Amino acid sequence: MKNIELGKSTLFFVLCFIINNLVFAQSIPPKIKFTENNYDFGRIKEADGEVKHTFYVENISEDTLFLQSVRASCGCTTPFWEKEGVLPGDSAKIVVAYNPFNRPGKFNKTITVKSSLPPTAKLLRISGYVEPKSVSIEDNYPTEMGGIRFKSKFLNFGTITTEKTVTKTFEIFNQSSDTITFSDKVVSGDFISVNVEPKVLYPKRGGAIKITYKPEVKNDLGFHNDQLVIFTDEENEPNKNLNLIATILEYFPPMSEKELAKQPKINFEEEEFDFESVQEGDSIVHAFVFENTGKKTLNIRQVKSSCDCLSTSLEKEDIKSGESALLKVAFDTEGRRGPQVKRVTLFTNDPTAPAKDIIIKAYVKE
To answer: What SS3 state is found at 86?
Structure first.
């Protein structure tokens, strides 16, 4: 009982202390005065770009005021403020800029001001409504090739797997005043098929390029940037030179934890190595050690590097359970300057790491 009574007494005194501090904090008279706490920009146009408003804070104390920090709640809002001390009776400006780009509709943002005088934390607010700009054909299709506009010259499939073929559609637009006919002829690898719809594209009309990508025919893992040329009957720029982008990974069917435990597993002693400071022109080598900590034999399908300045040497492609192997990476620094970050990727039959990256770093001196 005595312990319970003692606990109640302690809690009572703690609560009294907190309440007393709150009352004391609220009783401290303000020593700075803001001319306004909120500003409404009303309706603004996205096309007009950035808008600004200036908040004023007056030092009504007998001490020098310092605005220690001014932080916005969003990257679209940027505050600017005076870093110098504000003498008694003087005022400071806080300019708040709001960028409406790609932000149509209502907005309500806060700016937190921390100062050396009470109130030491103050919340300002800006609001308004952004009228979206009208989207032009040039905005929707920024890449121009003759009379045809594309969203990009890079037709990106993203990451795909060896499981099946993938078909994607890429929009195009005939901006010219002439009818444009697409040829059946294309220049590409045998791993893709191309179909333009419609073949005859009338002026100021949209169409599409439908591309089917066959990873099993490509038969190569990793990142790929392949050329694709499409032909039209235009007099100027009849050939449309495009880039087909894809990253291909080996497909593994879904597995339970029990099934995964029976698979091969690659494990590096280190996944990153920094040569630190090296002389330009030097060829430097590091050996990475990795182990198969899984149950089945680990097979290294391919080894690829992000730069032709790297060469690799793999001790063996098949690593039994419990065995280790070496991967030697040589970095030729000829023609390189400053900080370097390069990547080597091992493609494996480990379903949890079908593409394993290791990183090489260095700072190349002249």
So the answer is: strand
For the domain 32-131, what is the CATH superfamily, name and number?
Immunoglobulins (2.60.40.10)
Please compute the mean of the pLDDT values over residues 323-334 and round it to a whole number.
97
Element counts in the chain: helices (H) and strands (E): 4, 27
Mean pLDDT, residues 8-17 taken together: 53
% of the chain residues with pLDDT over 90:
90
- 43 CB neighbour count, 10 Å cutoff: 9
Give pLDDT, residue 80.
96
Please tell us whether the domain made up of 137-249 is placed in CATH 2.60.40.10: yes
State the Cα–Cα distance between residues 110 and 315, nearest whole angstrom: 59
Q: Could you tell me the residue ranges of all domains in the chain?
A: 32-131, 137-249, 257-365
Rounded to two decimals, what is the model's pTM? 0.68
Q: Which of these ranges, 1-5, 89-93, 231-235, 328-332, has the smallest mean pLDDT?
A: 1-5
For the chain, the residue count is 366
Domain 257-365 fold is Immunoglobulin-like (2.60.40)
Cβ 347 vs Cβ 302: under 8 Å: yes
Contacts of 151 (CB under 8 A, 6+ apart): 140, 141, 142, 143, 170, 171
